[in-house]
Structure formats: C-alpha cells, structure tokens
Automatic annotation (TrEMBL):
Binds the cellulose synthase activator, bis-(3'-5') cyclic diguanylic acid (c-di-GMP). One of its GO terms (biological process) is UDP-alpha-D-glucose metabolic process. The chain crosses the membrane at residues 738-759. This is Cyclic di-GMP-binding protein. It holds the Pfam family BcsB. It is found in: Cell inner membrane.
C-alpha cells in the first residue's frame, strides 16, 4: 500500500518506547482458592471484593458471546475444552478480573474425579467442582482471574475433566458433557498507562486493535475547515475507520480548537498551536507531532500541521501510507512520492476479479492447518465486489487442494465445505483400506502421514451475497473407531490441511448492477468504493456546514475504508456552487435542514420530495422480491411503482436517497439528509448497525427514525457497469422477448424473399417467358 519511501527529518530524538506506569495502582486481589470459591447453589454471590477504581481507571464487562462464542460452548469427552480470545489495550494494565461463569453439567459425572478448569493463557486460574447435588441444573459461579496471568493478547479456556465410572470408560461417552453459556460475563478493572510520545507507536493509542469496542476519536479544528483541510482529515479518518473494521468508528468534530477533557484526539490545523496547554511552533512544512493531552496525563494528541491545506494533506498522507517510518515526537515530511494510481476493483479487502485468487492470499498458513478428530473449522474470510453480475453463471469455481491423515479403517470421515454456515458439499475421506494403495501407500504414509487430494466444485450464487462479508468454512471430521472395553484411548495424531495454492475464481463475472441500491452503499460503500482511494468520489457539503456535517463526512469515509481496507487518499470535497465541475464523479451529498441547495435544484430527479418536515415518494415491488434484491439483477429494477407513501415528522428523522446524477448519466448520487444537524449521527449509527438495528439500509430510499430503518424502492432505475457487446445483446433480448419474436419474423422474411424471387425466376425460365 505504500507508494514510496518517506524521507523524514526528526526534530527530536525518540525516547524509549517502554510504557510508564501510572503513579496510582489498585490493590491486586488474591487468586481464588478452595476456600474462596462458593459452594454450588450460592453461586450468585461474587467472590471478588469490589475495589476502588484507580486514578483514571475503568471497569468494563463483556460476555463470552461478545468475545466470539456465537453459541454456548458444549464440552464433551474426558478432556473437552473450548476457548475464546480477549485482549487488553496497550495503554492499560489489569488491576483485577473475574469471570461469572454460567454453566450446567451431566448428572453422570463423578464428583471426586470430575471438575471444570478455568484457564488463562494455558495456566489454571480456577477449578470449579461438579457436585452431584447440582448436576443437570443451571449454575452460576464467580471466580477470580489472577492479573499476573493476563497479558495484552489472551486466551480464556474452559476445560471439562470428566469421568463417569471408576472402571474402564469410553472417552467419548455421551454422558460426558458440560454446557457453558455464552452469556457468561468477564469483568475487568484496568489502570491506565502513560505511553511515550513517539510516532513509531502509531496507530496507538488513537486506535488499539486489542480494544473490541467502537472507536470514537475526536477531530479538532481551530475554525471551520476549508475543502483542502477536510480532504486531509478525511484521509486520516478513513485510515482509522479501516483499522477499526467490524468495531465501527465515529469521529466527533470541534471547530473551536477545544481540547477534550479526557482521552485522545486528532488536531488538523495550520500555523502554531499555543493555547489550551499546547505549545507547538509553527510548522515549516508538512509536520506530524504527538504530544500529551494537557487535560489528561494519559491521553495523547496527534497534530497534523502545515502552512496550507496542501501541506496538511501531505502530512496526512504520510501518516496513512508511511506511518511505519515515522519516529520521534515530531517529524517533518521532506519528500512524499506520488501515490500509485488505483484501478477499479483493486481494494485490498475485495476478492480480485481479474484472476484466480489463492486461498493462501486470504489466510495465514497457521489457520489452514488443524489437528484432532473434530478440530475447529478452517475459516477463510473474503469480500466480493458488490456489483458482480451472475446471470446465466453456474456459480463460483473453487479448486480445492487439501491433505488429510487417512485412518486404517473408517466409513464416516469427511471434509465439509460451507459458506456463512450454509452447507455446500461433503467430501468423503477414504481410509487406508479403501484407498487400495497397498504396500506403496503404507510406505508413503510412514514418511508423510497425509495424502494430497484435489476436488473441484462450484459455490452456488444463491448463497454468495455480494453485499456481505463471506466466510468459507472447511471442517475436518474424522471417524473415531472404538477398539473395545478398556482399549479405547484417544491418540490425537490426525491432521488436516488446506493447500495455500487452492484457488477461487470470480474473473468470469461481469460488473453490472441496477441502481440506486442503498444496500450495496451501506455494506460496501459502492459505487464510491469502486476506486479504493475514492478518486472518483466527491463529497458535497453545505456552505454553512458545521460540526455535525463534518463529523458525518469523516465517519462515512471511515465506513468506506472498512470495506476497501484502503484510506481515502484522493477524495474531493466540494461545495454546492462547484457541482457543475463534478460531472465525472459519483457524489455524496450531506445536508441538514434546508442548507443543501443541490437537493432543491435536483428535486425533479429525486425519487422523493422534501418539503419541510414532509416526505413523499413512489414505490415499486422490488423490495418484496428477496431473490432479485440479494442478487444484482437489473431486470427486476424496472418494475412500475406499486403505490406512493407520504408522512410528516417533526423529529430529527434522517433520509438516505440514491439516484442517478443529473450531471452525467451512469454516475450516482447518494444524499444523506436530516431534518436537524444532530440527526446525521443517527445515519452513521444505522450504517454501522448492530443488534440495536434489526433492519438494514437498502432500497432507493431509507428513512431512519430512532432505531427504526424503513427501506423503500422507487421506480427510477439505471444501470452501472458493462456486460460487453455479446452480453449486452443477450441481456437486452432477455428483457424484451417480443423483440426476439420480431427479429425471428424479420429473419424468416429476409430468408424467404430471396428464395421466392429465385424460384419465380426459375419458373419464368422454364416457361420461356
């Protein structure tokens, strides 16, 4: 992603990177012992004593579901276990932690031999007994997790040690089970750390990938920013938004230069900063500086400065494309090579559509290898370009190369292939006996315990929703052959691997989609993200735009980069009077109240009308046709309006509208309009989504009121993309079957007329006339 090296001039030596601990620390609770764990049945009483929060500290809770356990953990066998990861921010240290475990276990477990271990990073933090009296019922217990065991990246493992008899036992007997609810809660109390003032730690502390919560990073301007300053800020916010990924990111804006009372912030300004406890000299070029927040000893300020807007953008590009080379507290950018121009659909997060893609490009070798009789699924994340046109295509070819350990005798071992929890194919894994390789195969297995196999399949388009994140799931399941009483011992020596040179290929698909389509805008930022750097995008802000409009602009750009994985280094910011010069760009128009004149100028092209608090628009049946909506199908978008809907509101409702650009055919406009400035934040919240928003943004018009999203489809449609000459003719014919009949009649006529004339001439010749 780097366009070139960034020669830098450090104006201050970099201090050591070691973190400086806070002066005040909370008392560390004692690790749990048998005496501190309450008896089962009194589990609702917390074990850990409440401690006073340290100076600047905080306490937060997360459920196992939030940590990644989508369903309850089911532990089976004599040593069943399940794990979830959790992390601690780099600028915090754990003062205390506890786990409130909600669980149930089998009545067949022997209390003297069985128990449940709570483990942190492979070490036992607590052992929970399983007495007979409470077996088979829902239990709850709270245990301490010793802070010394907790690092920045951690694994919380729940392990069942289960036995049902004193004699010979089946290690996979059905009576050996425990269920751990994913509503179990991990509560952590942390103390802050003061990190060093060094640019080399970027993006810390402004974004920390260890923190799974939503990113909220204020942007500070000394006054209302001009277009160039906003372009620099947009590059920064999009970079942070791309890093935040699934967490979502919001960027509150201040135009008064006011520094937040707590936490981190980004300042984008020209000239010197010598107020509010900050003393930064005037820059002599594009400059990046990191300083402490004068209002918070643990907070930091990232100051992106320059003598004009052009230098501000150079400094911002240095941060988003070359932050790995920045060192010291302050760096002056002496040279920034021009970034390489992007091409359509080359977003790093999107599956390449110009060639087959190897699965090794999408996942690390570690994730492609598994061990055990029933190992974890191999999950490969991917994202499709949202305008893939699948008409008359059978599906997406997957050339799967894999290896496995064949068992001496088995009948049910298999490799299951799925996509987003939907079944695709089950591949049988033959045993040594069924492979029929004889002595040669046995000798080969002595040197390599696995055998390579190739399988070609097609992933049906019906389950490949181009608007969403896709996950290819491959799971090995080996048949466990019982040896008989007192002979069953699990030897976990089976392996499975997906070869990195397995390929998935979407290069045969055309890029063509019916628009407007707010679904692909919300999920992928399309059509703006067709160019990953947004070089064909212009954001039109009102002339009197304020913090609400600026914040919405920065947050939406962060949402775009979450899709592409690339910062908005070439976005254009404009005002309404500059619209005639933007005919060659897709437009994102932001408005609040009646401060956007373009919406009035383009009223006839809008699929709805805005008249004060009133809203009125025409609807078609497209929204009720799930298949045509999920799969891009321009044919379905030409249906006539079903009826019209109108309503009035005096609240801060938000409307998202998509329509074809009045400036140039084939270009798109998406307008985000709120009746009040504060309503624009609701639009950002709805785009980020979550459990609070059961409905998603889609259609031609989306109305957002509180947490309610109503998506509607207008009858105005247009197409974006190309099918090629042959594909265009075929598609046009499929939409106009009467034309096929007409052309058939015309073809027959053209064929019959010469034949008729030739026969008439021959008849005259034969008759001598």
């Amino acid at each position: 992603m780097l366009a070139g090296a960034l020669p830098l001039q450090a104006t201050q030596a970099a201090p050591p990177r070691a973190a400086v601990p806070a002066p005040a620390a909370a008392p560390v609770p004692v690790a749990p012992t048998a005496a501190t764990i309450p008896a089962v049945g009194a589990a609702a009483t917390p074990v850990i004593a409440r401690v006073d929060l340290p100076e600047g500290g905080r306490r937060y809770s997360v459920t196992l579901k939030q940590l990644g356990a989508r369903i309850p953990m089911v532990l089976r066998g004599i040593e069943g276990s399940s794990a979830v990861p959790f992390a601690i921010r780099a600028d915090e240290v754990v003062s205390s932690a506890k786990l409130t475990l909600k669980y149930a276990y089998s009545p067949a477990l022997l209390a003297d031999l069985s128990h449940i271990n709570v483990m942190v990073n492979g070490e036992v933090a607590a052992t929970v007994p399983v007495p007979k009296v409470a077996a088979g019922t829902n239990q709850e217990i709270t245990v301490d997790l010793p802070p010394p065991l907790i690092t920045q990246f951690n694994t919380l493992n729940i392990q069942l040690i289960g036995h049902y008899t004193m004699e010979c036992e089946d290690p996979l007997h059905t009576s050996l089970w425990a269920n751990i609810s994913n509503r179990s809660v991990l509560e952590v109390t942390v103390s802050p750390l003061a990190l060093v003032n060094d640019l080399s730690i970027l993006p810390l502390p402004f974004f920390d990938r260890r923190d799974a919560s939503q990113l909220r990073l204020p942007f500070i301007f000394n006054s209302a920013p001009d277009n160039g300053t906003l372009e620099a800020a947009g590059a920064l916010s999009s970079w942070f938004g791309g890093l935040a990924t699934y967490r979502g990111a919001k960027f509150p804006v201040s135009t008064t230069g006011e520094i937040p009372t707590k936490g981190n912030a980004v300042i984008v300004a020209t000239g010197a900063l010598q107020s509010a406890g900050i003393d930064v000299p005037a820059p002599n070029g594009p400059t990046v500086t990191i300083v402490p927040n004068p209002n918070d000893q643990f907070g930091k300020l990232l100051i992106v400065g320059g003598r004009d807007a052009k230098e501000l953008k150079q400094a911002a590009l240095a941060v988003v494309t070359g932050n790995k080379t920045l060192t010291g507290q302050r760096a002056v950018i002496t040279q920034l090579l021009e970034l390489e121009k992007r091409v359509p659909y080359d977003a790093p997060n999107w599956l390449r559509s110009d060639r087959p893609v190897k699965l090794g490009e999408l996942a690390t070798p570690e994730t492609l290898n598994v061990t055990g009789f029933s190992p974890r699924p191999i999950a490969i994340d991917m994202r499709l370009p949202p305008d893939l046109f699948g008409w008359r295509e059978k599906g997406v070819p997957l050339n799967l190369k894999y290896r496995y350990t064949p068992q001496p005798i088995s009948t049910n071992s298999s490799l299951t292939v799925g996509l987003n929890d939907q079944f695709i194919k089950s591949i049988h894994l033959p045993s040594v006996a069924r492979l029929g390789g004889g002595e040669g195969l046995l000798e080969r297995l002595k040197s390599d315990s696995s055998i390579p196999v190739t399988d070609q399949m097609v992933i049906p388009l019906q389950i490949m929703n181009p608007r969403s994140q896709l996950q290819l799931q491959l799971r090995y399941q080996y048949d466990y052959i019982k040896q008989g009483e007192c002979r069953d011992v699990i030897i976990d020596n089976v392996r499975g691997a997906i070869e990195p040179d397995s390929t998935i290929d979407i290069s045969s698909f055309s890029h063509y989609i019916a628009m407007p389509n707010l679904g692909v805008f919300n999920d992928s930022g399309f059509p703006f993200t067709k160019m990953a750097d947004l070089s064909q995008t212009a954001v039109v802000l009102p002339n009197n735009a304020g913090p609400a409009e600026f914040s919405a602009y920065l947050s939406v750009l962060g949402r775009f980069s979450e899709s592409t994985g690339y910062p908005a280094t070439a976005v254009t910011v404009a005002r309404p009077d500059q619209a005639p010069t933007l005919a060659d760009k897709d437009l994102l128009v932001i408005a609040s109240g009646d401060n956007q004149p373009l919406l009035k100028q383009w009223a006839k092209q809008l699929p709805m009308s805005l008249d004060g608090p009133g809203r009125r628009f025409e609807l078609s049946d497209l929204i009720y046709r799930t298949w045509n909506w999920l799969m891009p199908n321009p044919r379905a978008a030409v249906d006539q309006a079903r009826n019209s809907v109108s309503f009035t509101t005096d609240g801060a409702s938000v409307v998202l509208v998509g329509f074809e650009s009045p400036l140039q055919a084939g270009r798109s406009v998406v307008a985000i309009s709120s009746s009040r400035p504060e309503g624009l934040e609701e639009a950002v919240n709805a785009m980020i989504g979550g459990e609070e928003y059961p409905q998603t943004i889609q259609g031609s018009v989306a109305v957002i009121r509180d947490k309610q999203v109503d998506s509607l489809v207008a009858d105005q449609t247009y197409a974006v993309g190309s099918l090629g000459l042959v594909g265009t003719v075929q598609w046009y014919m499929s939409r106009h079957p009467w034309l096929v009949v007409l052309l058939g009649i015309l073809g027959i006529a053209l064929l019959c007329v010469p034949i008729y004339l030739a026969l008439r001439a021959r008849a005259r010749q034969r008759l001598g006339s």
